[in-house]
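A common beginner's mistake is to predict each chain separately and then try to dock the pieces by hand. The better habit, illustrated here, is to supply every component at once so that their relative placement is modeled jointly.
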Amino acid sequence: MHVANLNKETSTSASKLTREQYLDLYYYMQLNRQLEDRMVRLFRQNKIVGGLYSSLGQEAVSVGTAYALEPKDWLAPMIRNIGALLVKGFNPRDIFTQHMAKYTSPTLGKDGTSHFGDLKVRHTVSPISMLGDLIPVMTGVAMAGRYLGQNIVALTWIGDGGSSTGAFHEGLNFAAAQRAPFVLVVENNQWAYSTPVSRQVPIKNLADRAVAYGITSKIVDGNDVVAVYMTTKEAVDECRSGHGPVLIEVKTHRMKGHAQHDPAEYVPKEMVEYWKARDPILRYEKFLTDSKIWDAKTKSEIDARIERELDEDQKFAEDSPLPPPELAEQGVYCDGCHTIEADWRRSKKELTPPNCSVDAAWEVKSFGSIDREAVAEMKAATETKQVAVPAASAGTRQIPAARGNGAPPLPASKFVPKVPQKPFVKPPAKAPIESNESIDTAAALRVPFGRGPKDKAFRQERQEKEKTRRDKRGRR
Amino acid sequence: MATITMLEGIRQAIFEEMDRDPAVVALGEDIGVYGGAFKVTEGLLARFGPERVIDAPISETAIVGAACGMSYLGLRPIVEMQFIDFIACCFNQVTNFVAKSHYRWGAPVPMVLRGPSGGGVHGGPFHSANPEMYFMHTPGLKIIYPSTAYDAKGLLKSAVRDNNPVLFFEHKFLYRRIKEEIPVEEYTIPIGKAAIRREGTDLTIISYAAMAHTSMEAAEMLAKEGIDAEVIDLRTLMPLDRETILASVKKTNKLLIVHEDTRTGGIAGEIAAVVCESAFDDLDGPIMRVTALDTPVPYSPPLEERYLPNAEKVAAAARELAKY
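With all components supplied together, the output reads:
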């Protein structure tokens, strides 16, 4: 597993980007943030019809990944990937009108949020609210692109929460079996609605999932846009050259609640502070200044351009009409309104009999029995295991970082199941949190199973805890 | 003219469509080297190769999802469910992703989802289902359920060429039992048109798939007793051929609906509502139905016989209806 710039304050190995590209990354991230800021205001004015899901703090993920794609490549956004839609060529007005349910929106008001796409020009597939389903769909996109000789890569995102779905597994397994040119970005923002990662999966790195599918994986600091871009570019290039799917885990944080209605009181304050100090845009601004890529004048020019564009598109959206009611009855079926035609980039003759005909028989290389080599491997593994067990039971062993595609299988001993987490006892008072690791533990301890902020007893307990903590601090 | 089984008709349709258009591909479990659990796709891999005939893992969600993605790039995938019962595993992909795609964001999904369905072969609760009504209730899907070799071939070819997702149910009881002469030259059958299998004046029996044959058998029995039944084979459930249904009811004034699906929430209820709304004044008796029981499909032969409608049960209901 390749770990890119994790926990480093700035990226430095960014020699491949031009100045224009550096500024592009800033433009899209800031556009993403300002656009969402305006939508929060519109939401409070009751101008957003449905829910509003913030990607505050995750802009580098959407922008950095999508920026690594070529125009012919395909993507499918999740609800918090508005930045990716902007990079792919959609306009702020598309996002405004979608949220405001206007007739001028890409779906004419039939669906909201980022639930829209474009098959012909921007090669974007619309998501649905059921998580994980985009993974098999984008696998099919990747397979079809290869079939038609288009040499494309398909990319989609999934959250830490969505990685628990059956569709995640089915899709990734099929993509791996087909060696499809497919990149899956696992956007680990620490929270599935109100549930922390530690309550969803028993592993530390979601990238470890890749080992089971026999595919390559990478981990990257999701609040470092250049690192995200570089890692994704590498993955996209690998995919394009036929290496099969790549899984990228980006470590980031959802700075707001699940949606506008959710104040996210379940997120520990220390955790908010930790990630606030790593705000992807502020960090990138500092990097641009320190690296002398821009000056104050360039920044204010870009910021002014963003303001101008957003003013115009917001006005357009606010002035747009709602759809006519009779539209509700139209468009369930395609009755000739669309022409379906594949963009062939290879000769159809290759796929026409007799050219495509084969001798239909399996070529089986392994008979599946336990051969001498496997027995020796198992024996060695058992011996290691006997030594390793005491250490494991002490609860201090870590599952080693997973390796990517083509790496030899890890000895069986390394797959000793993790010792179950300690049962929930009264959480000890915590020292100020300094690293990722302690944040994970803190989150796990603070949210007892089956209890949440609405639980009165839990609320009181927490208030008391806060008080004790304040007292202790006072004494120091 | 050549005499073929319904299974062979389906097989021919797939071969001919794949020959006609390289955008047509096939996906499913064991459809390649093995040729499919019922051998519908036998020889397909040899002719069209592994890029066009894809042996997929046991992963219905992945298969349907991938087929949907392929269709976004202009391919026309034909997906096989090994048994149509397993469509439950990919219910979300079919009903939320595929069916709503065109309405929501104008992305057509030209895909065919086909598989063996129906009981009468002692397949038990998980290899005998008729799950068509789950999907009747999902706007955006078309549903075909043929009863003859000729129809199966012609309708499957239309389904492949249609720009919408089409569920194509193949009654496995009929696969090899129905033999029919079909033309050598190419033909298609339009989706959404019912067929009048027997003209009659006393009452109308509406049915489809295996029950169309059961209804015909019952009609022959009734004819000997002097009851002249008209038998309509729906062939396509969605869109429903209301015109043919209403025209027949207006002629015979009595309606009996027969289906192999379970009773509550079966298509008989929908047809009854359509007739009540549009031809109430033409009815001379209650709308009656003969259906399977409201239970899972049982395994043991006497239980399954009790579960399924048969010609006797249909004739008995028709006799009651004829008294009005």
